[in-house]
Amino acid sequence: MYQSRYQSRSIKRRGTGRKARALFPFVLVCMAFLLNACGLNAGAHGTVYHGDESRIEQKKYGQNIHNEQLENLPTQSMKNRAKETLQVFENIVNQLKGSGGESASLQQRLDSAKKQLTTLTRQQDYYSFSAQLAVDLTEAQKARAGGNAQSLLSILKEEGENWGNAHKWHNPYDGKDYLLDSSYLELDDGYGVIPDLKAELAQGGSSQKVYDDIANALFHLYMLEANFNDTTPYNKEHPTDRQLLKHYDAQNGQVLVVSLTEQALRVYENGQFTKAFLVTTGRYNRPTPPGIFPLSDYLTNQLMMTLEPPGSPEYYDPVTVNYTIKFRDVGYLLHDTWWRKDYGPYTQFPHQDSGGDKQAGTGSHGCVNLPTEQLGWIFHNIKPGSKIIIY
């Protein structure tokens, strides 16, 4: 994993015997006859061309299809997770009924989901089902909050803590356990989405704006949870990405989608998946914020430095990077990390980077890190003003 060398909140721009010999001619004649009978022909330099090679390949192809079909069958744990999540949804609907809350439309969603669950036959069906159920759960929790921003924030905080504690990742490098959704928690020094939303509430902004921001954070969390169990390769379209694009009406133009659990960035053009990169995002206690943000301030050769004192675990030596793109105020950037060698799953946690740079051995301070060539591609091909969705 990489340490981004970047303090997000303090930046300055920047591939054997005779008898045998007597029989030898007879054997050759027999072999020639057999070869001809089998449809095999001897080619130049002794090469044998198999006339039924295509049938052999067809058999192999058929076996491959069979194997793929077996691999695509949903596992029992996958079925169990879907049932458990559906039960959570049903519990909320029943709670709303008992309290006299609005539940008619949610009951319709629930009935539809129950019916759909009985028709799922492929793993991909379950992934899409889970993504849709995440949408339904968000709507159910919003109804449960009854339009009260503080109540919805409490629901978000509880969901983040419960899911995180139930899905701890044990790091063999340092022997510690880490919650995979720290971006959605309340962390020290004001990090995590909960302190941000609390501050927004305290500042007395538009109540609807604050409520929508909390609801969107909850939506992103539920998408993270659904995507966590999705084994689709990182360089393929994910159902959760599709739901996020739909939610933000972002199916036109260029959109970057970052999955925090996969440590991957996917590029969409007019709603179509086009490209993917592995990334490294914020370390556990300096997580990358979830949300949707515009890309701006495309700069080159920027000096990055921190105000943390030497000796602090958050300190890094000043470093110049090739490309930076801002996605959020107070210094949250996409930038290249030429000193990093490894990117992808769990590189946001402490590890030994294969390149040997000690400061590449954990996540960033909240930025999204990529290799120089890949960040350069984004820099030159993704237009300023395009959106980035992080979940």
UniProtKB/TrEMBL annotation:
SUPFAM superfamilies: L,D-transpeptidase catalytic domain-like. GO terms for biological process: cell wall organization; peptidoglycan-protein cross-linking; regulation of cell shape. Keywords: Cell shape, Cell wall biogenesis/degradation, Peptidoglycan synthesis, Signal, Transferase. The active site is at 335 (proton donor/acceptor), 367 (nucleophile). InterPro entries: LD-transpeptidase, LD_TPept_cat_dom, Transpep_catalytic_dom. One of its GO terms (molecular function) is transferase activity. Residues 254-391 form the L,D-TPase catalytic domain. This is L,D-transpeptidase-like protein. Transmembrane segments: none annotated. Residues 1-37 form the signal peptide. The keyword Cell wall biogenesis/degradation applies. One of its GO terms (cellular component) is extracellular region. The keyword Cell wall biogenesis/degradation applies. It comes from the Bacteria. Pathway: Cell wall biogenesis; peptidoglycan biosynthesis.
